[in-house]
């Protein structure tokens, strides 16, 4: 298998904008959770071996929740389980998400020792008032500290997550955040416009009129400035919200996420984690108790939901949708060939032409890429191309 | 056998239906197991909204002081929209039980219903309900009834439909205090139709009250208003189970089935007589139901032709009309919205009910335009036109006089809110008529207000201003002319006639502007800038613009987001199909309700 995602659902606090499966663990279920995760990893590896797959992993990503909230002993156990199940080598990109408050020299050393070589730190903002809006409570100074600790432990690839278009945030404040991220010296930045996900406390408050969302014009300007400022600092945009320095030792695109956007294959472990294998998609059941019960009852099998079978039309639509988000774009002839079996080649080509005429899409070296303007309207462009497949 | 025909009348939620149930139980007509909650309300919607929409009649037998009594009780709709139906039901009675909630006191509809009963010469028994509740104030409420309606407080019967307390006294009063039916005035048959409903198996079922002569199974009958003739295939009474009878004599109520296919063939208020020996004149008081509020329904999916959605909608309309003779519909075509129907309603609640039933029972999704009232236009040529839709108004150059319907509104409110209510009524062009103290704490205000000013949010405003304490009732009292203008709306240079509205000249600017601001909120940004304009006869009175879209890109899209994001994009595509395109602008359904914003 090329990639594996493992989900750790524990958090200090459920942030009001977050729609990931996470919760505050009062019952200290970290131990039982880690044991169950180890069981699931073992089962996954067994099934893959039985199916004749290579036990090697190109990328491994432990996300959350807050994975670094796991106690050292549990990380140790998780490391053992991972290494027991898969062949993890120095070539494997092994990323872990980290909350700045949780970074300690001991944890960083342990992570490095089990092969972690990339740390993604949730900085979000360097302004305490905006962190407060997001319900993040860390001290902005701890971001730099976390990065230093990671590097000292030998984890050389570090990334920062930042959020803009936070209610009340000015363009100048956002530029200051970007400048600080550059000054700290990160090889990778994920910069997201704050998104009001359905069923989050923040969206409910927005709908109740408790505050106003950032003006669309300002948000667009912030987005454009992000590309300019980070680009000038050598962090090139390679996906809508992701920027990387060119040195692969300290920067480079996140290969794990690239696997998502190129619609490669990945397995999933842990509650609510999503998998994409052999053209099928599914999601592990999101409730910790349900997930753990099933793991124990079936010797490592997670209950799954949202299963989608093989569907060439859907697969192509998704490939277009995610591929257009990448600076590398899409191989036009490959897309047109895949559309052939659906009888939609002409329609897809016509849709691409229209997007080119609107100045949203470029066509060079046999690749479709969003133009700078097109990038701002990526959803509309992909929706148009996708509807050509219906 | 003594006969008593009576209704129970009350303000909404004062416990009328529960009391009806209790009465049925107290006379042993229904076993507790059979007694579903609110027995007389048969439609699901009524049950859910707690409103009785259609009247029905139930006959029970009761022994009082050794004598047999046939008690016919006629349930009435509680809402003002159905006041004509209420008045027909009351015509079928000699008496009424006026129920007032002892925790709430006299409310606007208590007053309206009591007046209606008094105007129909009914003997009235007053009772205060819910005396089991800790907040009950039966004596104070009885005093309120005396003060405002003039029924002596000592005659008022305290009761609790919930516990059954006071029910024997109430039944005794019904037997002793209500008069028997009047004697027949002629040998020819005359029966009043006071309600009807549609049954899938038997066709139309008519509720009747026989005043003169006799009606027998197998009789050939004639409706005196419409002239149609039928043969009676079934006569009966609801006890409350239907029980067939051979005949109905003077003073009796019951139901009649005569192979009548649609409710349109039956007019509530019409007189039934014998086709062979007809009465010389009908019973008095018949009126055509009057539709006061109009709006258009269009299929919500686009498509300019008479597509299948239009046919589905037509079918749903026809089915509803089978069940509700007071609602009208006629095909209409709009440049912007395609083919649909112009519908007429007795009032706003009636409109809401129809819309809900269309979607629920008919399974069609509709776009509803803002409700309007019926205007009268006198042209310079002396012609009088009924205007049910601002888009139908001819060029102002041929207007001589444009008149609007006026309602008399009665509001009952705790006295600390009187000032707020007066301000509200004034802002809606209301003219003060009267102020009356109901008790030490509550007042009744009477205003005359143009109906157009109250059809949408007046009631909501009233409720929110008074923390829910105010109650209101209204009645159309006539038409009046005023300085009215028609305001048209242009979107991206294209007129959207469905948004045209008639306004008083002084408030046209404000309403026009607030409509544009609402539209600005409802219409999503497009890839181009969209000018919005409000105009009176070609002169722009307000303008706004929707800025072009700057950004349409999802920030996060990772492994677990892909399915959801694809569905989101699919949904956006579908949502686009559900919107109406005016030129190249996509307009969502909510935008058509923007016209209702009063600009306050």
Largest interface here, residues on each chain? A-B, 42 and 23 residues
User: What's the CATH architecture of the largest domain in chain B?
Assistant: 3-Layer(aba) Sandwich
Q: How many β-strands of chain B, per DSSP? A: 34
Q: Biggest sheet of chain B, open or closed, and with what strands and sense?
A: 8 strands, antiparallel
Q: How many domain modules of chain A?
A: 2
Mean pLDDT of chain B: 84
CATH architectural arrangement of the largest domain in chain A: Alpha-Beta Barrel
Counted by DSSP, the helix tally of chain A is 15
Q: What is the overall number of helices of chain B? A: 12
CATH topology call of the largest domain in chain A:
TIM Barrel
Low-confidence stretches of chain B: 30-55, 302-306
Q: What proportion of the residues of chain A is helical, as a percent range? A: 40-55%
The backbone outline of chain A, from C-alpha atoms, is globular
Structural class of chain B: alpha+beta
Q: If you had to describe this structure to a student in words, what would you say it looks like?
A:
The complex is a heterodimer of chains A (390) and B (600). Chain A has 390 residues and is an alpha/beta fold. Chain A has helices spanning 30-50, 72-85, 105-113, 128-133, 141-152, 171-184, 201-207, 216-232, 255-261, 288-297, 312-323, 332-340, 345-357, 372-376, 378-387, and strands at 3-8, 10-11, 23-24, 59-64, 93-98, 118-124, 157-164, 188-193, 236-239, 242-244, 266-269, 274-277, 280-284, 304-308, 330-331, 361-364, 367-370. Chain A has a 9-stranded mixed β-sheet with strand order 9-10-8-7-6-5-4-1-11, with helices on both faces. A 3-stranded antiparallel β-sheet of chain A has the order 12-13-14, with no helix packed on it. In chain A, strand 4, helix 2 (72-85) and strand 5 form a beta-alpha-beta unit. The mean pLDDT of chain A is 93. Chain B has 600 residues and is α+β, with helices and mostly antiparallel strands. In chain B, the strands form 7 sheets. In chain B, strands 11-10-16-7-8-15-12-13 form an 8-stranded antiparallel β-sheet. In chain B, strands 2-3-1-4-5-6 form a 6-stranded mixed β-sheet, sandwiched between helices. In chain B, strands 22, 23, 24, 25, 26 and 27 form a 6-stranded antiparallel β-sheet that branches. Chain A binds chain B through residues 5, 192-195, 216-217, 219-220, 223, 240-241, 257, 260-261, 266, 268, 272-276, 281, 283, 306, 308, 314, 317-318, 321-322, 325, 375-380, 382-383, 386-387, and chain B through 525, 527, 547, 549-560, 562-563, 565-566, 569-570, 572-573.
